[in-house]
Amino acid sequence: MRALPSQAIAEVEDRIQSAGLVSLFLDFDGTLVPILANPMEPQLGPDAVETLKLLSSREFLTTTIISGRAVEDLYGRVRLENLIYAGNHGLEIFGRDLRFVEPLAWLRREQLATLCGELGAQLRHIPGVLAEFKGLTASVHYRMAADADVAEVQTAVYAAAARNGGLFRVNPGRKVLEIVPRTDWHKGAAVRWINSHLAETPVLTIYLGDDTSDEDAFSVLPGAITIKVGRAAATCARYRLPDPAAVHEFLLWLATRKRGYAGCEA
């Protein structure tokens, strides 16, 4: 596995071998699949599906797909059992007998739907802008918009959030503005909640993500193996991988690390 430096590979393998359980968290867009101009288009390729199937079959691994997408959307793009799905930046979780919805986000969903609808109407005249309501959060995508229109989009989104009395905050992403309820919950909180419900200890957490929302997890998991995907300058993650292709190489390597696996070299 050549995507990580040899020193990092040795450290990761040593920690995997000594862990009772590895809790693996994978972002979707930009981590498992490349970022595309149209946010509705990304799909897992056949090789990625087979990699996830292999991971899900390994007894020492529990795998969670964690994303800003709604959990139904996320599951529809993966459709594999024996995984945990954490949608809307971890505000909703299901899989492997786990069920969770963040209460404040659930209470504010109707207000958020109204806000998103108003933004969609307000920004309709700008080509390439998409306002997406995702049940517990909303996203305003502008990857396909002209650079000259970005400032207007940003101003409208921040103003709309401010009009709602501080109930929502805006998280900037990769040419997307996420509108999320103001709660104490984020991807890092979701990771800790999921890990607390896993039966076996000690748990070694491995988290791979590419976006600003993944920094919420990186920053609260100091003992974890955290991997930033992409070439952004600043991150709290310990390691880096350049792109989804390198992620898949790492995942295949990971699936064959634990002692007792028939396909693993002695």
Q: Can you lay out the helices and strands and say which pair or pack?
A:
Layout lengths: L5 H13 L2 E6 L19 H12 L3 E6 L4 H8 L5 E4 L4 E4 L2 E4 L1 H5 L1 H14 L7 E4 L4 E4 L8 H13 L5 E5 L3 E6 L5 H10 L6 E7 L5 H6 L4 E5 L9 E3 L2 H12 L11
Parallel strand pairs: 1-2, 1-10, 2-3, 10-11, 11-12
Antiparallel strand pairs: 3-4, 4-5, 6-7, 7-9, 8-9
Descriptive account of the structure:
With 266 residues, this protein is an alpha/beta fold. It has two domains: 6-101 and 185-255, HAD superfamily/HAD-like (Rossmann fold), CATH 3.40.50.1000; 105-181, Alpha-Beta Plaits (2-Layer Sandwich). The protein contains nine helices and twelve strands. The strands form two sheets. It has an eight-stranded mixed β-sheet, with helices on both faces. A four-stranded antiparallel β-sheet has the order 6-7-9-8, covered by helices on one side. The chain is globular, with a radius of gyration of 19 Å. The two termini are 16 Å apart. Mean pLDDT is 91; it is low at 260-266.
